[in-house]
Amino acid sequence: MRSITFNRCGDSSVLQMIESETLSPAANEALVKVALAGVNFIDVYHRRGQYPLPLPSGIGLEGIGEIVSIGKACDDFKVGDRVFWTSALGSYAQYVNVPIDQLTVLEPEIQLTNEQFLPLLLQGMTAHYLVNSSYPVTSEDTVLVTAAAGGVGQLVVQLLKNKGATVIACASNSNRAQYAKNLGADFVGTYDQIEALVNEATQGQGVEVVYDSVGKDYFDVCLSVIKDNGMYVLCGAASGPVPPLDLGRLNAKSLAVRRPMLASYTRTHADRLGRLNDLASFIEHGKLKYPEAKVFALADTQSAHDLIESRTYSGKIGLDPWT
Ligand code: NDP
Fold first, then answer.
1. What angle do CA 37, 182, 223 make, to 5 degrees?
2. Which fold has domain 2-113+292-320?
3. Which of 39, 36, 4 lies closest to 18, judged by CA?
4. CA-CA distance, 78 to 69, in Å (whole number)?
5. What's the CA gap between 267 and 225, in Å, rounded?
6. 3-state secondary structure of 212
7. Which run of H or E residues covers position 236?
8. CB-CB contact of 121 with 144 (8 Å)
9. What is the pLDDT of residues 156-188, one digit of tens each?
10. Rg (Cα) of the chain, in Å, rounded?
């Protein structure tokens, strides 16, 4: 089978396509034929060494496919099931062994193609848990979102608007900020306008919550614009990790900080399907827009990584391992 691996960290040129034997699934795994693998920013962190992996390593965590064999018979899955997963390392491949507890069967009632489904998985479920579970947003809240034109960001903006919150959305340039405006954000601008936008939107009071996936570059300003008892949610670190935080800095406004991870909010089959069904229902009722995934051939994985790092694209990126 063909798959992508890397044996040193670096830019996208370290990614290599190899041919290898397909491994049999262990007792707690299923072998899945990958129809479409998802490209996510966490794959870039892995490739750069920002989240270190033992090398050489496969890459990619997410995909949609069909079960071809199961390590040990179980009641929940059968050969032929259409499934998705968001945390099986080595998913940029034609086949991957996925731990059974990480698999979810796609219900046939949800009539979406793989390209339409893919954005709802890692990105969609992340956006869903961020606004519902990491901090339960209400219509009373004013919320700041960074990287708002990115994959997760544009979904967060729309889910927040569906809740009736006031949304301040920031991106790296005015075109990308305008993209968030078109998705319903109330106040939009570039990162250097964060303070001014929050002052305008809240009459100087500050926001209830910040969803920040940029990390290092705007950490201080993001922390400074939160009102009393508010929360800073560090969802990602696209610009690099934030510096160590002296908890004393939270004291003056009784702030809370959360560093959430998708896995903690999607441990069970029911968690995952609940979030997915919610998202699919929003799409069905025209309350959530998302472009179909832009799909690259596996041999062109480097271009897929270059695109996600280019800061020019707003959408989901997929890999078709069979072209
Ligand atoms: P995106 O499509 O959002 O791409 C990342 C975005 O980050 C870019 O669009 C860019 O937007 C922004 N950015 C800011 N600084 C930089 C930089 N220095 N280099 C590159 N991009 C930068 O990716 P995803 O939707 O896959 O992920 C979005 C974020 O959410 C990531 O930080 C990821 O780690 C995080 N995430 C967190 C999860 C969790 O459970 N905690 C799960 C899934 C994703 P702009 O140019 O407008 O600034």
1. 80
2. Quinone Oxidoreductase; Chain A, domain 1 (3.90.180)
3. 4
4. 8
5. 33
6. strand
7. none
8. no
9. 999 999 999 999 999 999 999 999 999 999 999
10. 20
Task: Indicate the pTM of the whole model.
Answer: 0.95
Nearest CA to ligand 1 atom 33: 236
Question: For the residues 73-96, what does the mean pLDDT come to?
Answer: 94
pLDDT at 258: 98
Look at ligand 1, atom 11, and give the residue with the nearest C-alpha: 147
User: Phi and psi at residue 58, in whole multiples of 5°?
Assistant: -75, 175
Average pLDDT of the residues of the chain: 95
Best probe residue, ligand 1, of 11, 39, 41 (max atoms within 8 Å of C-beta):
41
Which two structure tokens, joined as six digits, stand for 181? 């405006």
87, 213, 271, best to mutate for ligand 1 pocket (most atoms within 8 Å of CB): 213
**For the chain, what are the domain ranges?**
2-113+292-320, 122-263
User: CATH class for domain 122-263?
Assistant: alpha beta
Res 112: pLDDT: 84
Q: Cα dist. 110→35, 113, 264, 303 in Å? A: 17, 9, 25, 31
Give me ligand 1 centre to Cα 109, in Å: 31
Dist CA 156 CA 45 (whole Å) = 21
Q: How far is the CA of 214 from the centre of ligand 1 (A)?
A: 6
Report DSSP state, residue 120. Answer: G
What tens digit of pLDDT does each residue of 231-267 get? Answer: 999 999 999 999 999 999 999 999 999 999 999 999 9
DSSP assignment letter at 11: S
Nearby residues of 73 by Cβ (< 8 Å), 6 or more positions away: none
* Ligand 1 contacts CB of residue 147 (under 6 A): yes
Total residue count of the chain as it appears in this document: 323
To the nearest 10°, report the CA torsion of 132, 137, 142, 147: -10
- Token pair of 42, please? 């966490």
